[in-house]
Design brief:
single chain, about 250 residues, alpha/beta, six-stranded mixed sheet, four-stranded antiparallel sheet, 9 helices, binds adenosine-5'-diphosphate, binds magnesium ion
Length: about 250
């Protein structure tokens, strides 16, 4: 089946229920992600943002609906999950680096194991990526020796080692001290400028406003509003979106 307009991922009526359907974490999500899109997913805690991201690379098994990746429904059984995850890099709030491996080893492990990239080539590439985020001199350090901001920059370039088509971020700066969020956001901003397709769950409204091209505002497992970022922030269509933005401003004023 052909995919129109560079759609990479097409999510159609996706539902994920927990506790025998008592909790409707996702209650009919439909979103298309096109090549080069930078989508900020925002919304109150518990609205289903993480479940949405985790469903995309099958860390959660959807209850119903479909996720088409280049037109192929990945919720069907025969999908190769390792191959899929390689195409969708994921960065989590808590970095998820392997503590007993050096930064370089953290980066070369998956390419060597999964893609069978020779050690030399993988190391070379890792050093290049580390250089890009200003951490080349920390290649032999262990995660515990790095700041949170440094660890998150490593987590991002570790995901890039697999040359993903899409990068998924779940609140990548939420666990960081405020003075460290800037260095991580700037790496993400560069990625976006290079044309990476990104879906970013974030509370950083300045990032959503200035870097993302679109906003998906979620609540109670549904997409309340999906709009170009500029429109969302200047002229939200839904009353619920307006209330959410007002509430953020109020908090900012305190
Ligand atoms: P968000 O990331 O927007 O804060 P989540 O996707 O984490 O929201 O959660 C959406 C809803 O699903 C919440 O009510 C949450 O408690 C529930 N939920 C998420 N994961 C599980 C799980 N593994 N088991 C039961 N309920 C879950
Ligand atoms: Mg979450």
């Amino acid at each position: 089946m052909a995919t129109a307009d560079n759609v990479i991922i097409s999510v159609q009526n996706l539902c994920k229920y927990f506790k025998k359907d008592a909790i409707r974490a996702l209650d009919g999500i439909s979103v298309d992600i096109r090549q080069g899109d930078v989508i900020a997913a925002i919304g109150p805690s518990g609205s289903g943002k993480s479940t949405f991201l985790r469903s995309l690379n099958l860390l959660e098994t959807p209850t119903s609906g479909s996720i088409l990746f280049h037109g192929v429904d990945i919720t069907q059984k025969k999908v190769n999950i390792d191959q899929l995850r390689q195409k969708m890099g994921m960065v989590f709030q808590h970095f998820n680096l392997f503590p007993h491996r050096t930064i370089l080893q953290n980066m070369t492990l998956a390419p060597e194991k999964v893609l069978r990239v020779p050690h030399e080539a993988a190391s070379e590439k890792a050093l290049q990526l580390l250089r890009r985020v200003g951490l080349e001199d920390r290649a032999d350090a262990y995660p515990i020796q790095l700041s949170g901001g440094q660890k998150q920059r490593v987590a991002i370039v570790r995901a890039l080692m697999m040359e993903p088509e899409v990068m998924l971020f779940d609140e990548p700066t939420s666990a960081l001290d405020p003075e460290l969020t800037g260095e991580v956001l700037s790496v993400m901003r560069n990625l976006a400028e290079e044309g990476m397709t990104m879906l970013v769950v974030t509370h950083e409204m300045s990032f959503a406003r200035t870097v993302s091209s679109q906003v998906v505002f979620m609540e109670h497992g549904v997409v309340v509003e999906h709009a170009p970022s500029r429109e969302f922030f200047t002229n939200p269509r839904q009353e619920r979106s307006r209330a959410f933005l007002r509430n953020l401003l109020d908090r900012f004023d305190e």
